[in-house]
Amino acid sequence: MLIPFILSGGSGSRLWPVSRESHPKPFMKLPDGKSLLQKTFSRAASLGEISEILTITNREYYFKSRDEYQETKKAHPRICDTFLLEPFGRNTAAAILLGAFDVSSRHGDDSLMLAMPADHLIEDMESFKHAVEQAANLAKTGMLVTFGIVPDSPETGFGYIEMGESCDDEGSRRVSRFVEKPSGEKAAEYVESGNYLWNSGIFCFSAGKAIEEFEKHSLEIYRATLKCWESTGREGAMAEIDPETFSDVPEDSFDYAVLEKSRNVAVVPASFGWSDIGSWNALSDLVAPDHEGNRVVGEALLQDVSNTYVQSEGRLVAAIGVENLLIVDTTDALLVADRNHAQDVKKIVGQLKSMGHESHKLHRTVHRPWGTYTVLEDGQNFKIKRIVVKPGASLSLQMHYYRSEHWIVVSGAAEVVNDDKTLLVRTNESTYIPAGHKHRLSNPGIADLVMIEVQSGEYLGEDDIVRFSDVYGRK
After folding, report:
1. Contact at 8 Å (CB) between 266 and 144?
2. C-alpha span between 121 and 41 (Å, rounded)
3. Per-residue confidence band for 228, with pLDDT thresholds at 50, 70 and 90
C-alpha cells in the first residue's frame, strides 16, 4: 500500500500579495485556473491504485482544502481524503512523524508513504510515476528515499545532495551528504561535477522505518511527538492534533532531524519538470513570453517594456519604459519589484506584520467554511461587506460586544436568528442585529445567498466575536 502524504503548510511570503497567511501558496490559482493544492492532489491520485490521500495542514485551512479536493475528486471518486490538522506549524519533522504514527496505527508499519509538499509543480507525470515506483522499491527494503532533481543550472536557492555509491540497477544512489544552499561559485562546481542533485523535498519511506529512524536519531522529537499523538483522537477521516502537547514538540525539518544523520538514505535522480514555485520569478516562468520577454496574466498595456511579469486581478495595468520588473496587482495591494530582488518580497511581509497591517494575513475576499465575505469599504466606525453563504450552510450562533450589523439580502433568502426570534429575510428585505444580540445566519435555499452587511460601532475587528455553537467545530 502506498499512501501519498501531502504537506500543506507555510504562508508563501515570497508570493505576497496573492499568497497570505489566511490564503497561503497552496491555494493560489495558476494561469490554468487550478490551484497548486489541486494539482498536487490530482498528481497523487494518478499514481496508480491509490485508495487514500492523507493531508496535514493547519486547522484553519481544513474546510478550504476539503472544498479544493471536492472538485478534483470528481475524476477519482474512490479515493478517500483524510486529514491531520495542526493547531500551528512545527516544521516538517513533526508533520512527517505524526503522519507515520497515523498510517502505522491504521495500516501497519509496512505501509509506504510518499511525502509531497503541496506547493510544487511537476510537468512530466510519466517520469514522476517511474521515479515513485523506483523509490517505492527502495523503501520496501527499509531505505529512506529522497528525490533529487538533475540540475540544469547553478541554482543558489536550493539545497543540494551529493550522491554516493549505487544502490540498485536503475541509477539510484546512496546519499553521501546534504549541502546547504551554496554560493554561486560552489553551485557552478556542483553542477559541473555531475555528482550533485537539487534537493526536492519529496520523500518515500515505510511508516515503521520512519518511526524507527526518528527514535534513533532525534529522540527528543520522537518522544514529544509520540506523546502528542497519544493525546490526539481521530474522528473518522479527520484527526485534530492536540495543541497542548504539540507545543512541546521541537521545531525542526525532516532533513535536519533524520536524513542528515541516518546512514540509510537513498536518492532517486530525476528529471520530471519539477519546480517549487518559490518566488514570482518561478511563477512567471509558467507563462509564455512575448517577443520582448514580457509575461502577462490579466489585462495589461505595455509600451517600451521588456523582461517584465504583470499579473492583475480585474484591473488594467499600464507600464511604460521599464524593464526587469515584477508587477502584481490585487484588489487591496500592489507589488512592484526588480526581478533580481524577488526573494526579498518576504521582507515586505515582515514589515507588514510588525506594523500590524492586515494585508499580510487577509485578502479583501476571505474564505470561510460557509462561503466568503469581501470587504467593500472600511472607514471610521463602519465597514461594508459582501457576504456569500453556500446552499445549506450556516454561520455560527454568535454575538458581538462592540458592533451592530444591518443585513440586506441581494439574492436568495436568509434564515436569521436574532436573540429569541427566527425570521426569513427575502430578496430586497433587510434586518438589524444590535450589539449584544445572539444571532445566526443560514441559507436554507439551493442557490447562493448574497447579502450586504453594514457594520457600525467603535471597534470592528474580526476578533470581536463570541461563538456559542458552530456546525464546523470552530471556537
Report:
1. yes
2. 11
3. very high
Question: What are the structural domains, with CATH classification, of the chain?
Answer: 2-275 (3.90.550.10), 280-345 (no CATH), 365-469 (2.60.120.10)
Distance CA(240)–CA(160), nearest Å, equals: 34
Q: Cα 316–318–324 angle (5° rounding)?
A: 125
DSSP assignment string, 165-204? EE-STTS-EEEEEEEPSPPHHHHHHHHHHT-EEEEEEEEE
Is residue 207 within a helix (H) or strand (E), and if so which, with residue range?
helix 207-217
Single-letter amino acid code for the residue at 198? W
Helices (H), 218-314: 219-230, 243-246, 254, 280-284
In 3D, which of 99, 109, 86 has the Cα closest to residue 10? Answer: 86
Strand order in the sheet with 466-469: 421-425, 414-418, 439-442, 397-399, 466-469
Task: Tell me which H or E stretch contains 136.
Answer: helix 125-140
Single-letter amino acid code for the residue at 425:
V
DSSP state, residue 427: T
End-to-end CA distance of the chain: 37
Which of 7, 5, 87, 118 has the alpha carbon at shortest distance from 52?
Answer: 5
Contact indicator for 213, 255 with CB cutoff of 8 Å: no
What gap in Å lies between CA 64 and CA 266, rounded to an integer? 35
Above 90 in pLDDT, residue 424? Answer: yes
**In the numeric block, which cell numbers belong to residue 179?**
549541502
A 10 A CB-CB count for 173 gives 20
189: Cβ contacts below 8 Å, ≥ 6 apart: none
CA dist list (Å): 21 to 26, 30, 107: 11, 18, 33
Q: How far apart are CA 207 and CA 210, in angstroms?
A: 5
- What's the CA angle centered on 114, arms 113 and 115, to 5 degrees? 110
Q: Which helix (H) or strand (E) holds 217?
A: helix 207-217
Burial 295-328 (b: 16+ CB within 10 A, else e): bbbeebebeebbebbbbbbeeebebeebeebbbb
Q: Which residue has the cell 492583475?
A: 312
Q: Which helix (H) or strand (E) holds 149?
A: strand 144-149
- Give the number of residues written for the chain: 475
User: Of the given ranges (274-278, 319-323, 465-469), which has the lowest mean pLDDT?
Assistant: 274-278
* CB 375 within 8 Å of CB 385: yes
Which residues is 189 bridged to in the sheet?
none
Distance from the Cα of residue 460 to its chain's centroid: 28
What pTM, to 2 d.p., does this model score? 0.87
| Beta-carbon count within 10 A of 357 CB | 13
Q: What's the whole-number mean pLDDT along residues 181-186?
A: 88
